[in-house]
């Protein structure tokens, strides 16, 4: 039993030693750490080489900048162990994660997915409320769909990839890779739950997320955020087509959540979108007509949000097409 821990690095020189050491301190001799320097423009790459190039458990990869999703995918290509864990290079792993995971797998040898909790901390003295990632339960689920349905019904289904250790066979068999978008975890994690078998969820906290002002998720919102959510909704709608029951219902509620966030970004934060993005929104609405009734049955406000998008983008946007005589 062993774990490949994939750590993308991009311009986090001030944090990476603390982050990577928090992982090194608890791995076994059979585990591997794959550090992907994703085209850093600071001295992160040099620092990685200096500190870890001679460590027997560490593999270092230097690439051009692909973004977080692309860096994770590059790391996955080099992963050789039975399980995979994606870790962020500015955060801190709590002691005991790997030991607890191994103990759990020894009791449940068919385990596909290990789901845990996290807490946040800030580098600044801000009094803002920090995000929480509390699962609130220790439980065994027969599959990922059951786990997703329960967690989402309790508002405890967090998409962040650093909250999951996954059997690599599940990843490989189902081609689970990340898209090169912002909010890549929002698109990825429902697909992971959709195909995972036996799943363990624990309320134990094994991850400490650093909130820093210049990180991707704390930076100013832009059109890229809208595109990321469009990709997520499209992906989740594909899952809706092939599922039913409570899992399907929870997926639809997740879609509603994503749509409401897009509405907030466009309507309240006044993010301007290009014609290409308007076309993407129009196509999303046009291909998911049944969603309007689902929204109306559950929330008149969200139905109005849907209608807002429909009127603003679907009916006012010309979708290009190519004429053909081969009909």
Automatic annotation (TrEMBL):
Domain of life: Bacteria
GO molecular function: transferase activity
Family annotation (InterPro entries): Glyco_trans_2-like, Glycosyltransf_2, Nucleotide-diphossugar_trans
Cited Pfam families: Glycos_transf_2 (PF00535)
Keyword presence, RNA-binding: no
Keyword Transferase: yes
UniProt keyword list: Transferase
Domain Glycosyltransferase 2-like: 4-120
PANTHER family assigned: GLYCOSYLTRANSFERASE, GLYCOSYLTRANSFERASE 2-LIKE DOMAIN-CONTAINING PROTEIN
Protein name per UniProt: Glycosyl transferase
Protein's organism: Klebsiella pneumoniae
């Amino acid at each position: 039993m062993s774990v490949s821990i994939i750590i993308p690095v991009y311009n986090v020189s001030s944090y990476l030693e603390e982050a990577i050491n928090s992982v090194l301190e608890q791995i076994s001799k059979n585990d591997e750490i794959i550090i992907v320097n994703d085209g850093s423009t600071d001295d992160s790459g040099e620092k990685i080489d200096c500190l870890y190039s001679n460590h027997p458990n560490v593999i270092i990869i230097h690439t051009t900048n692909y973004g977080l999703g692309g860096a994770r995918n590059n790391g996955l290509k080099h992963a050789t162990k039975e399980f995979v864990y994606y870790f962020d290079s500015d955060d801190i792993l709590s002691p005991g994660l790997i030991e607890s995971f191994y103990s759990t797998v020894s009791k449940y040898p068919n385990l596909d997915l290990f789901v845990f909790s996290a807490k946040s901390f800030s580098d600044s003295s801000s009094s803002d409320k920090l995000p929480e990632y509390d699962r609130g339960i220790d439980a065994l689920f027969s599959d990922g769909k059951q786990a997703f349905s329960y967690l989402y019904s309790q508002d405890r289904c967090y998409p962040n990839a650093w909250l999951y250790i996954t059997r690599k066979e599940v990843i490989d068999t189902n081609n689970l890779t990340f898209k090169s978008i912002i909010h890549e975890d929002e698109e990825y994690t429902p697909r992971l739950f959709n195909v995972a078998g036996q799943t363990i969820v624990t309320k134990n906290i094994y991850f400490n997320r650093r909130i820093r002002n210049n990180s991707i998720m704390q930076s100013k919102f832009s059109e890229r955020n809208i595109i990321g959510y469009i990709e997520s909704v499209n992906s989740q709608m594909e899952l809706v087509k092939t599922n039913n029951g409570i899992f399907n219902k929870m997926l639809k509620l997740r879609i509603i959540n994503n749509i409401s966030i897009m509405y907030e970004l466009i309507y309240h934060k006044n993010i301007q979108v290009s014609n290409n993005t308007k076309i993407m929104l129009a196509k999303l609405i046009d291909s998911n007509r049944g969603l309007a009734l689902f929204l109306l049955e559950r929330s008149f406000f969200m139905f109005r949000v849907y209608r807002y998008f429909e009127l603003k983008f679907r009916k006012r946007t010309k979708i290009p097409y190519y004429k053909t005589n081969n009909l």
